Task: inverse folding
């Protein structure tokens, strides 16, 4: 499969099946999608339609059952587990819906984990972690534990961790779900500024209509498929009003 130079992610014929026999669930049903460098792509659709499975697969967290997905020209399925882990650590930032923070570590240590895993010296990793925390408005809480934070603050720590290593691709699962309107807008603006520079890309799974305006394109999903890709948030909202 040839990939155009401007493509950040290209998936073709992507399927994902969980379980076997009578318990089989087909989460993805032959998805074709391209995410361009420098753009923000939002994935919308009802709960259970495959959005989280899709971003987990294209980020190399899950292996597809069929099809392939190239991230900046690299086919993650053809890498060994160790190579895929190394590639994700250097090139992909993932904001999980459940945050996945470590309660026994300080905020700066949580955020610095991706750098430490790459072998960055501790002092340098902590300096960059402090900078990332400052960007999400938590520069004054670097030594606190995550257990002392609200859900919205934990979300911001998770976002700081996702951007601290300057990944090419940032993938977010409901990044504003625990945030108030003002903070949510600030966080998406920050993610957009990080992701749209230097040929990067940002993919956001969301139900939050307040942030649709930050999307360059919106992919509407249902039943494990991409039903349609809208070239602007205005096109998507217009179609919603007509439906």
Result:
């Amino acid at each position: 499969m040839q990939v155009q130079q401007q493509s950040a992610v290209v998936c073709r014929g992507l399927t994902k099946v969980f379980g076997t026999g009578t318990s089989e669930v087909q989460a993805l049903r032959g998805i074709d999608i391209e995410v361009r460098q420098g753009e923000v792509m939002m994935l919308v659709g009802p709960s259970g339609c495959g959005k989280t499975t899709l971003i987990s697969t294209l980020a190399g967290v899950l292996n597809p059952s069929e099809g392939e997905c190239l991230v900046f020209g690299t086919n993650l399925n053809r890498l060994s587990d160790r190579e895929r882990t190394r590639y994700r650590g250097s090139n992909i930032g993932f904001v999980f819906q459940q945050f996945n923070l470590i309660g026994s570590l300080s905020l700066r240590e949580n955020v610095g984990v991706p750098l430490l895993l790459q072998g960055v010296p501790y002092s340098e990793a902590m300096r960059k972690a402090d900078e990332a925390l400052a960007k999400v408005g938590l520069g004054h809480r670097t030594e606190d534990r995550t257990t002392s934070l609200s859900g919205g603050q934990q979300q911001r720590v998770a976002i700081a961790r996702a951007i601290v290593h300057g990944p090419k691709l940032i993938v977010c699962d409901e990044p504003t779900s625990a945030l108030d309107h003002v903070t949510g807008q600030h966080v998406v603006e920050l993610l957009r500024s990080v992701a749209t520079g230097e040929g990067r890309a940002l993919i956001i799974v969301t139900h939050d209509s307040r942030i649709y305006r930050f999307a360059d394109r919106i992919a509407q999903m249902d039943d494990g498929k991409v039903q349609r890709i809208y070239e602007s948030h205005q096109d998507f909202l217009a179609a919603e009003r007509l439906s």
Remarks:
- Helices lie at 51-58, 81-91, 107-117, 122-135, 151-163, 181-195, 233-242.
- The first helix runs from residue 51 to 58.
- The mean pLDDT is 90.
- Residues 7-17+31-242 form a domain with the Rossmann fold fold (CATH 3.40.50.300).
